[in-house]
Amino acid sequence: MTLDTPTFAAPPRTVTVEVWSDVACPWCWIGKRRFATALRAFPHRDHVEVVWRSYQLSPETPTGPGRPEIDALVEAKGLPRDRVEEMFARVAAVGAADGLHYDFATTLAFNTFDAHRLLHLAREAGGAPLVDATMETLFSAHFEEGTDLGADGALVTAAARAGFAAHGWDDARVAAALAGDDAADAVRDDLATARSIGVTGVPFFVVDRRYAVSGAQPAEVFAQLLDAGWREANPLVAAPTADACTDGTC
């Protein structure tokens, strides 16, 4: 008896991973790094499209200059300050294991709506690579450097650092887009979709709107998510052979 050789029924179909995330969410940065680790090791990574979606953990945060994150959380959640400090310390310790250096003593709470607009502009300007670079820039500025991303011009500076200029977007063009309403509808669409599919916390990873994982899971869990989505999108079939058993009499 000869073993059948599994083959794809058709050319591999690209799977889409949508990730709802907020740039003011420390677990989202950790989840992003862990997902990237899983994706790098995934044998079919060239057929995986990653789309980052907008989510706001605190949409009620006032626009304009930020305020100390710890003050905002103590007020919003009604938690004792020492309890919030313990939460920050835990996140910082977990992040350090993934190569991230959180400095919650300088982190400022700000309304993230315009930061999400910038991420959509990055997609328009330079596609997925520029989105990734912009996300990393925003996360680092917010959590490591204590940058007030709600201050005038801060997002323009972040765009320059992320590499917008290499795609024909100088500071003036970015500033003009942010001064207007560019990409605001795209952010609202992401937020509405999140509500419609039941996203209540981030990061939230969805493969082809069929398989989902919530939270900054270990890379191994993301690998399983990718594999499940891939197998669903690209079922295997057996190539016929002349001496295959079909009736159980072998």
Structural class: alpha+beta
Mean pLDDT: 93
In one word, what is the shape?
globular
What count of helical segments does DSSP give?
8
Beta-strand portion reads: 5-15%
Which sheet architecture does the biggest sheet show? Answer: 4 strands, mixed
What helical percentage do the residues reach?
Answer: 40-55%
Cα-to-Cα separation, first versus last residue: 8 Å
State the main characteristics:
13% strand; 8 helices; single chain; 4-stranded mixed sheet; globular; two-stranded antiparallel sheet; alpha+beta; 250 residues
Give a verbal description of the structure.
With 250 residues, the protein is of the alpha+beta class. The chain contains eight helices and eight strands; from the N terminus they run ββαββααβααααββαβ. A four-stranded mixed β-sheet has the order 3-2-6-7. It has a two-stranded antiparallel ribbon with strand order 1-8. Helix 1 (26-41) links the parallel strand 2 (15-21) and strand 3. The chain is globular. The N and C termini lie close together (8 Å). Residues 1-6 have low confidence and may be disordered.
